[in-house]
Queue: 2 jobs
Job 1
Amino acid sequence: MIQLGVVAGDGVGPEVTACGLEVLSAVGRIEDIDFQTVPFELGGERYLKTGDLLPDADIDGLRRCDAILLGAVGHPEVPPGVLEKGILLRLRFDFHQYINLRPIHLYTGVECPIKGKGPDDINMVVVRENNEDLYVGAGGFARRGTPEEVAIQTSINTRPGVERTIRFAFEQARRRASLGTFRGLSAVDRRQGFQRQVTLVAKTNVLTFAHDLWMRAFSEVSSEYPDIKSDYQHVDACCMRMITSPERFDVIVTTNMFGDIITDLGAVLQGGMGLAASGNLNPEKAAPSMFEPVHGSAPDIAGRGIANPLAAILSVAMMLDDLNLPRAAEKIRAAVRQVLLRPAPRTPDLGGHATTADVGRAVREALEA
Ligand code: NAD
Ligand code: IPM
Ligand code: MN
């Protein structure tokens, strides 16, 4: 039996998570895998009612799970940062989920906003450092609220934290060479002499302490991987090239903050926030990993039943891969692929008129067909 903690959370979180769970139970029936889901009521509503963010009983319960599925947190009536830091970042940190893996993959049938680019061009993965940098919450105010106010927010970069992330990225590049779920070299790739590559995305020209450490660690680790090309882009130029020549990227490794920003850009390359999946990984499996869409609680569309559930469904597939159930994972991706080949049903973000539930049902039916 596999026990999964479910934090549906706020806004569209519960709407898309419901579809993810429907698809999960369908694949469980087909593959004869016994998934037990345990709901955890965490998020804005509970916080507003009780003041609870992530009580010990919940964190202990989540720790006992094999993996966690999260919808989104973020509530219009709760000040920014309270739920994000108190729930989402706390889980990422406490469970040492130091890798945030964010594949950027354009499915056939989904329109790419970049003219002339197709599925062969948009196929990369971002390895985002997930436990350090500006996210650690180191900082404070002096003279708060006065005209001389000072605010400090410190980026923390440790050699072990940076190095394990870079090493994970090189391993990922090797795995992409062998795994069907990631980019296989197409005929076009071979003609163009495409080689597996890891691109470090940083800002060494300005962040001359933190990113000097990143660059030195990158150079040293890359020498252990002579089969993988190493590449460097400043983050500003990387944003430009993700638009003009996305096909040049294979594996990107980057800091927590830059990884957050470039993966929303990456989401757009793959058809929008409704399609981008992610995994917060504890690679040593010393605590559960957590899978979630890249998007947030989308308060602008919450409660209307029109959020695209595919990012949540594809996050379930990533979770199954991580639980060493690649066949179940691939069945979900194949069902998503099939649904996206058809013009309908599609939610409004993909130009359709379907509801969240319509799309979830279509994926389940494709899976069961
Ligand atoms: P967002 O990702 O929630 O929304 C950005 C835009 O994308 C919105 O226009 C939204 O309608 C659209 N969108 C998002 N998901 C969609 C889906 N499944 N289908 C169709 N359209 C979708 O980002 P935001 O508006 O900046 O943040 C809203 C709240 O969510 C904030 O409180 C933020 O802190 C939080 N947030 C949480 C997470 C998380 O829990 N993992 C991630 C990002 C943002
Ligand atoms: C994400 C989100 C989070 C992040 C926020 C909600 C803390 O934007 O998962 O991309 O910045 O990591
Ligand atoms: Mn983000």
Note: The first strand starts at residue 2 and ends at 9.
Job 2
Amino acid sequence: MNDAVMTGGKGAATAAARPADPCCLVIFGASGDLTHRLLLPALYNLAVDGLLPRAFALIGVARTASSNEAFAADLEASLPKFATRNVDREAVKKVLGCVAYIQGEPDDDATYAKLARELERIERERGTKGNRLFYLATPPAGFAPIGCHLGQSGLARQENGAWRRVVIEKPFGTDLASAQALNRKLLGVLDEDQIFRIDHYLGKETVQNILVLRFANGLFEPIWNRHHIEHVQITVAESLTVERRGGYYDATGALRDMVPNHLLQLLSLIAMEPPSRFAADAVRAEKAQVLDAIQLSDRAEALRNAVRGQYGDGFVDNIPIEAYRKAPDVKPDSTTETYVALKLMIDNWRWANVPFYLRTGKALRAKQTEVAIKFKQAPVAMFRDMPVDRLAENFLVIGIQPKECIGLEFNAKIPGPSIKIRGVGMTFKYEDYFDAAPSTGYETLIYDCMIGDAILYPRADAIEAGWRVVQPFLDAWREAKDQGLAIYRAGGDGPKEADDLLNRDGRHWRPIT
Ligand code: BG6
């Protein structure tokens, strides 16, 4: 992450950032969606902002037949479709000035021999100093074989002052055992500090801002604990359906797709202890530690503290939506969940008895990602002789998307001769203060990897701690088969059972709007 000097006022944050180290970026799975939709536009934005290395080259590796020229032309042609800013020829040249393509199978030695030759040639001609960033943008089955080949072939060996780093896309494993196995394999051939496990939620400005909100202000930390906070709600609602991702999604489900990664990343930023320094090791250690403190459920608790649902027919924004089971590549009797709500407890001094309620789902009323922190209620007794029967609740709401904001909800007196009280709000909106150019969310993540800053990348221990939390729910649901799977109407708020999860504790979800 860049150092920033704040001088106040709209657009006054000055990023004191330098171009990243010279390097060659090797993308495995280069013909895929991720490369075109996100990686290339992010590289382009880095070039426009002067952050891309001055000496830079791009090598694509994929199964499909292509050539250096055809691959470069394909990338150039796709950029205007996905770029978040106007495309300028000079900046395109900085990204695509040196492009090569290698056709090969991920598990074939010959691919890596070809890659070695191409890297040596480009490093000589382009002056990228031997620094290599390998980006695994393949389906997950490719992660272990590619990682192992890179390690065993020596292509990822750090030597003569050159760095070699490997970015792994999600999902990192499909359960605890497979995540542990993948970590073991990768750590057998690479050092932990060479492995960058990406979670695109950490590329979001509003997510990164949680650390600043908590630790750069004297205001919140003293009350950020069980004495003042009553419960926390983390919502990642999507109005999108599974669209064309039925094949992947039906084998995955909402729990695996969203919780061990994105939702638990949000939880760990909210719940972690203050790190001793704003540096990768200190921050990552605290994040892993708080995940490790989440109470693990037995089967009965897992069933009691989790709700799973699947969307049926309905309407999102007045557009008819067909039930999940009718989506392409989804089994007609699928029991895969498209919605999950969980109640988690953290066993430590800060959070004992403060429930963290998490929910995420597809085909809901609206897209809304937010963290809402509910503070304890003021005693109403003082107002007992006034016409006040209920005080509004005190929430601090961190809006992550689409509204990027922080709001505080509190009580105020309605003007007039008698004491009447109403809930009101104060909201800080990012757009009122900062002119951020539209981005893909991958810029900071790629740049950080190029400068060797792993602060936004979860370590092996945090990944495994996340799966350890989720595993009891996976096990309980596997045994329960379709029992307890609630069908909810597309375009609604999710299953009623999710409301019951909070209602039985005397609480309710914030509305999805
Ligand atoms: C991805 C999931 O990791 O995150 C998708 O695989 C989901 O299913 C997406 O739609 C949500 O990301 P965002 O940034 O739109 O909230």
Note: The pocket of 6-O-phosphono-beta-D-glucopyranose is lined by residues 170, 238, 257, 369 (CB under 6 Å).
